[in-house]
Specification:
By secondary structure, the chain is mainly β. The chain has helices spanning 14-17, 37-40, 79-84; strands at 30-32, 50-51, 56-66, 69-78, 94-100, 108-114, 125-134, 137-145, 149-155, 163-164, 173-179, 185-195, 200-210, 218-219, 234-241, 244-251, 262-268, 274-278, 289-290, 296-297, 303-309, 315-322, 331-340.
Length: 344
């Protein structure tokens, strides 16, 4: 992957960086106006690809393959806490690991990987975890509470032990990290800015870059919203394919798709100027999920989307977290994808 240098917008002010957006313009530029090839590549889900744990909420799935074993990392907290306050309980979560001989399960709980009480900074909770292999080592990154900033932990073995850095890695919420071939780093994240026009905080996508994972991380494009037409998002993930940055996220207020928190897809050649792939959602609660056994599985919403790539860089699975009518946060699904590679 060729390194792309990202120029900054000198002198830009936050008041001019973010402007309130309403809906996607009728003449919006996108790669596909009447189709969505990633959506078309989604396949029926085997029942083994739904991971639940009795008594617990599971969230933010991330899978890494080591040898012949698939390791699923996610955050977890009790249904009891969720029942008391489903908007705050996640702030007290911890990180777990489950394993399977197949990407699509069944997964079996293996261990509690890290608890907040053992972390140097996240004394209350560790959330939105993702694990990736970097050279011969493994990086686990997450947001910690209180603070909502990003932290890094490292291990020489996927089984641990994990050693946490005693500093904030990035002042960023919901990070999505991409390590380039030369070791430099590009990371998407969510940020909020109060908007008088919206009457609330706007939820936007920014980016950081650094020469290495050791930092320091610097804002790309002076920290402005990188989404076209000032769209909003939550939970970005990123990968490199087709000589471009590829990002999927959720459509925060449904401005793109008309469906709140539907999964949408953006691409960028330079890491600054992003283009919408399609206004048709990749995945949303508006459609039932087809199961391999012929049944249909309805979901309340799709959150924390992540991709899993095969050895050739094709997307072969789309991971997401789901709630139920009883619990706002509850279980994980790994949906097969028919070897998607963008060609836009």
């Amino acid at each position: 992957m060729k390194k792309i240098f990202l120029p900054l917008m000198a002198g830009a002010l936050m008041s001019t960086i973010v402007q309130a957006g309403i809906t996607l313009p009728d003449d919006a530029v996108m790669s596909y106006s009447d189709s969505n090839p990633l959506r078309a590549a989604l396949k029926p889900v085997p029942t083994t690809a739904i991971f639940r744990m009795e008594g617990y909420c599971l969230w933010d799935p991330s899978v890494v393959k080591v040898g012949d074993t698939y390791h699923l990392f996610c955050s977890r907290w009790s249904h009891e806490l969720e029942a008391k306050d489903n908007k705050q309980a996640w702030k007290s979560c911890h990180i777990i690991r489950a394993t399977s001989n197949s990407l699509f399960g069944p997964y079996k709980f293996k261990e509690v990987v890290m608890e907040a009480k053992d972390h140097p900074m996240g004394k209350k909770g560790l959330h939105n975890v993702k694990v990736m292999q970097v050279g011969e080592r493994f990086l686990m990154y997450y947001i910690h509470t209180p603070g909502g900033n990003s932290g890094f932990s490292w291990a020489d073995n996927i089984d641990g032990p994990w050693h946490s850095e005693k500093k904030i890695a990035m002042k960023a919420n919901n990070p999505a990290v991409l390590v380039r071939d030369d070791g430099s780093v590009y990371a998407l994240h969510k940020f909020k800015v109060e908007s008088k026009e919206l009457g609330r905080h706007g939820v936007y996508m920014g980016a950081y870059e650094a020469a290495s994972l050791e930092g320091p991380f610097k804002k790309v494009a002076a920290g402005r919203n990188l989404l076209p037409y000032n769209m909003e998002l939550e939970d970005p993930t990123i990968w490199w394919a087709n000589n471009q940055y590829n990002a999927i996220c959720t459509d925060w207020m449904g401005k793109v798709t008309g469906i709140g928190k539907a999964v949408v897809y953006y691409t960028s050649k330079d890491g600054i100027n992003y283009e919408l792939f399609s206004k048709i959602p990749v995945w949303s609660q508006a459609d039932p999920v087809p199961m391999e056994d012929g049944s249909e599985h309805w979901v309340t919403r799709v959150e924390r989307p992540q991709v899993f790539l095969n050895d050739t860089g094709e997307v072969v699975a789309l991971l997401a977290a789901f709630g139920t009518k009883e619990y706002r946060h509850d279980y994980i699904m790994i949906r097969p994808v028919d070897g998607f590679m963008p060609t836009n």
